[in-house]
Amino acid sequence: MPMPEWLRMRRAEPATAEQAAQWTKCPKCASMIYRPDLAVNLWVCPTCGHNFRMHAFDRISMLVDADFTEIGGEIAPGDPLGWTDKVPYPQKLQRDRDKSKLTEGVVCGFASIGGYPVALGVMDFNFRGGTMGTVVGERIAMLFEQAAPRRLPVVVVTASGGARMEEGMLALMQMAKTTLAVRRFRDAGGYYVSVLTDPTTGGVTASFAFEADVIVGEARAAIGFAGRRVIEQTIRQRLPDNFQTAEFLLEKGAIDMVVERKELKDTLVRLLDYGSAVRPSANGRASVVAAEGAR
Amino acid sequence: MNTIVEREKGLLELEQRITELKAHAAQQPVDMSAEIRALESKYAQIQREIFGTMTAWQRVNMARHPKRPLGSDYIAALDRFDELHGDRHFRDDRAIVGGFAKLRGRRIVAIAQDKGRDTKDKVLRNFGMPSPEGYRKVIRLVQLAERVNLPVVTFVDTSGADPGIGSEERAQGEAIAQSLYQLAGTRVPIVATVIGEGGSGGALALALGDRVLMLEHSVYSVASPEGAAAILWGDAARAEEAATRLKLTADDLLGFGIIDEIVPEPLGGAHRDPESTIARVLDAVDAALTAQDALDVDERLERRYRKFRRIGSV
Fold it and tell me: Which of A198, B19, B64, B112 sits in a 20 to 30 Å window from B151, CA-based?
């Protein structure tokens, strides 16, 4: 879907929604927030600064200069295990497609950020908890493969509950697939920045999220390998509140920096300035040329 | 309680009776061969009934059998082994054993996950759950193998990477990611064998190989059945159901093209004849390494890429 269409869709939403849906409660401080205000404020609570989890389209709108050319959007999940529990897996997928307006857990494509043409992938927790199945693995691998010959840097914004159980071992193998793609891309001289947002866990943490040249954590995001609940059950005690936050990882030396959402785009532009092989052109044409070459 | 151990009890009793009867018969003038034959055929029948077709859950229990050969047993069966310790940063993680070795006359770097046999050994090895420094030891040893141009042979057996506070503080996710990253581009051959439990990312971190083998009754899964049941249904007790749905047996995974070869086990499982099972695995690894000798580095890396690249592609 081209970017302007998304924007129209997002803008049209409040007009058709019921009045009640215009208000939402901050899960952190419980204050009532008028949704359009929240959107203008980049989905950050104006009262307490809590970062709401962002829809991939909103995240892309926030980061890119203008257009976004999606790739791999046509790749749709199968049901390799024939998985059924309460609901058959294909029904769960359909429900999440309807609810999230996404085709899968990651949106990938070409765009420009601050004039720098980039290959951009954005994960979305709204689609099956951002879990990595075959489609997420395929789209991420494709993003790195298509970025390399264009000499584009890759930016990936992660949000994931880990590997997708309903696709079993095929899901786990996406850790290998994405890693091979990142390795090949970086061995060929590619520059890769990952942005870890709330929450980034499990198989995504243990693969492409932590294979970047520069790793940025969004402020207060939960980032870790094992889930908090699993650890608490194992050690039979409550974990401190700051455990597995971006700030905690920064202190332990696991990530490069912690950035507030409103600073994220400017930060990325600076990081692209240091590492991008492609320089921006004054009129932003570089990104258009790159995107037209995409298939 | 391990379901395989339970089911074995009757068999082991019968086995003992046959042995006793044979000893008794040897000292008696009367011919008891008919009785012995009858017991032996009954034994074989029960054995076939129990082990002829095994459910996914039974295989999970077989993979966790207390007597199943462990990583260290495979290492001990190599022609030679010189252990190399530590990650050079923090500590030596005993859940992972690695070093220079010789296999069928060939010099290799061998790396095994080891769960430990008795209680003391299990605690020492953290029940086979590696910490970040374990994966960092793997990275170091694989880099060493590449420097001196020796193939890497791994033996995978873990319920998963350690989920403790310390492991999170020392970036368990980063350690596994970097282990995968190291294997992804390593120029020497990598042959991995799942010998027991292949538990999630903690297992895959040693299994991104040019050839991936699995013992017949081992399992390899996106999450432990207990973990998957907890994640999906908030009820770890539904592990048996999860085991069936997850498609974690060697047959399932060969069908998906996730593994390349199944190494058969004796009837009743690897622990019934550890020596021959281990020899069979080492023969299969040796054959896989011989096949790799024919490839030049670029072709090996290209095949490794394509092998994993096509999994789950449409």
Answer: B64
